[in-house]
Amino acid sequence: MLVRLLGMRKGTVSADDTAMSTLRTCRRQTREGELPPPTDPDSLGAELEHQLTRKIDKAAATQRYLKNKRAI
Question: What's the structural domain count of the chain?
């Protein structure tokens, strides 16, 4: 997934910021009861990977939208 972040335009998305945002989101959702507390590290890793993939896809979609908006 880090490779997907590195392939994006420089200055648009920071890999570190995206990873930290994912951790904060997971922590908040666990605290608020939206996610069950992780029982084993493997389930936590899978959940973090899923959330990180969603954030990367959302950032890529935003980039495409802005690029198309500027082209018009």
Answer: 1
